[in-house]
Amino acid sequence: MKVFVTTELFPFTHGGIGRAIANMLSSLDSAQAAQAAIVWVGDDLDSNRFASVYPQIKLIVVSKLDYELVDARGICYPPEWAFTDTEWHWRSVRALQGLRKLASEVGQLDYIEFPDWGGLGFATTQEKLLGREFDDSVVAVRLHTVDSLLADVDSRLVDKQVLATYDLERKALADSDYVIAQIPEVGHAIKAFFGFSDEEWLPRMHVHAPPVTLDFGDVAQEPIRACADTPIVFPSKIQYLKRPDLFLRGACGFLRAHPEYRGNIVFAAHSSPNAMARLQRMVPPDLAGRFVFLDNVSPIERARLLSRSISVTASQFESFCLSAYEASLAGAICVLNGNNPAFGGSSPWRDGINCCKFDGTAEGLAAALAVAYADGVREIVEPPSGQSPWDTLRPRPAPKSVATRPLVSVVVPHFNLGEYLPRTLDSILASTYENVEIVVVDDCSTDALSCLTIERIQTVGGRLRIIRNPMNLGLAATRNVALQHVRGEFVLTLDADDLIGPQFIELAVNALQCNPAFDFVVPQTGFFLDREEGQIGRQAAFADYAVFYGEARALGMYENRFSTATCMARTAVLRELKYREELEAYEDWDLYSRALAAGKRFIATNGIHFFYRRRANSMYHTPERVARHRELYHALLTGKMVEAGDVKLPLYVLEGGEAVHAAPGALEDEVQALRSQLAFYQNSRAVFATRKIVEYLKAKAPWALKLARRGLQTVWRARRRLRS
């Protein structure tokens, strides 16, 4: 079974991803189609419409309502509202659950293909690394165009969501079995953009382009011959990456150089009103009558227009550019940006033969238009062809499970938490993995209960050891002391008031043994209050959640999205890195960022395996701690550098950039406090549920909202009369 996981599919949605998948499905014969499936991550695809277009393709719709908070193994998952950085993380978990559902119905999934956009394959790649599922499946990510690349060239604001999406997209590409590049140069461009080495990228890169089909008309026998009335068309979406501004300037240059040309310059593309208005303002007044803006042109009108036009692709990056192939096959003369990797030397596009290329400048475009107008091209393009990846790629050799069960050292730093320590130890001893030693390091506790608890635990012996610091050293130094005493091959760090899930140690050890290139396994986190402790394992909901990506290269610069202090790591790696003892806080965040800089790799679970106790008197949730965040964050950045070419700067310049836009003076703390309160209410279950109910009613039963509004107004008027 070959599976395409997607949020787009032609003809139900717009977008190049959906069109490429549709073309690949259309190329399958009857027997192949019967062994193909779509996993649709969304809510708005009608199964009857799908069956009418793709009668032999199996469909799995993964709607929001189908999301499982607890799976068949009893593992809990964060709800939608917990994914506060980007919805793509949650969508990737939904995609994983959809694949599970499909596998339960049809059995083995031989080939699973994700788009690169949004990192939709993130959760599935992590699950495969954990050894839980898909060992015998090829998990591939096709390069359509990552959102992160658009953020790098588009005129948009960069926020936390953009940074989180970058991390997810890169991680999905890094951990997939194969990367499908539609043109070799595009694969090399994405490799360079994300900073992958040749060794980790090229052996996994497979080149395959989707078929090209025409919706209207037959493939032309030869290109048109341009005349004075031939329209010059911009067929791409109007966004910065597509460079409509460059097209407009180049077209103006051509018009002024060729007064005998009588045709129109046509924008036949989707656009927002603001983008269209900006373009219209750029048109010189004396040429305004020569420009035509067709925002809502129908597909058949667009196809007919392109077939008799000079079609210009001005964008600086495309993964394949189906529209250019479609235009050429329809008979258009194609003018292409020669700096675009999709039209590079390995592509079938040949300057002067089946296209006219320009150098990426407005002057170069005007000159290329002149050549296309005067000489045209000799041939239509021949789209690339080759064997499909689902026919040629085989699963990468699955890591062999290691029969030995190495010792795991669980490190528990302790200071005045005697009330909670026994329950923390109980959670460790309840693990399904039995070869565990527990090293409790007491950092000179002072309260009577904690001292008594340590004394009693010390008499237990066996797998549990107590180390006493001669003086209070602080959390970071206490963890380093523990690392000096551990005997295990792996270390699990666990604070003295938190709990670990019974399956996590075994899951993490197996993952690290089977994947020697990785060094950390990160659990997703559920927060609980003291009164909720007894409910853990019996209900899916938690007071709050924290979700992590492991390798948080971008967002990890500003927030800790690597892991909590609790994760499984190789002992040798932690001893190599050590915790920075001069830090009052964020010592775990600092260690993970240094680990990433040193080339260490992370695996993240999708399920919740770590339970963080939110105590009322916790030092991590006091107003004083929030107010000191800037100071503590500055300490985290010290000693690190950032480089851009020959420029090398201390990393604290990131903090300075934030400060420029921060609220001045005493207002800053107030603004931060208000933001925190707003985030709390936005993320609360009641508000989240209310918003979702309203959204559902707007879509499915708008009359119910009107009825409810009228009812409330009637009640309010009656209440006012009674009070008066």
From TrEMBL:
It holds the Pfam family Glycos_transf_2. Signal peptide: none annotated. InterPro entries: Glyco_trans_2-like, Glycosyltransf_2, Nucleotide-diphossugar_trans. Residues 409-569 form the Glycosyltransferase 2-like domain. GO terms for molecular function: transferase activity. Transmembrane segments: none annotated. SUPFAM superfamilies: Nucleotide-diphospho-sugar transferases, UDP-Glycosyltransferase/glycogen phosphorylase. It comes from the Bacteria. The keyword Transferase applies. Keywords: Transferase. PANTHER family: GLYCOSYLTRANSFERASE, GLYCOSYLTRANSFERASE 2-LIKE DOMAIN-CONTAINING PROTEIN. This is Glycosyltransferase.
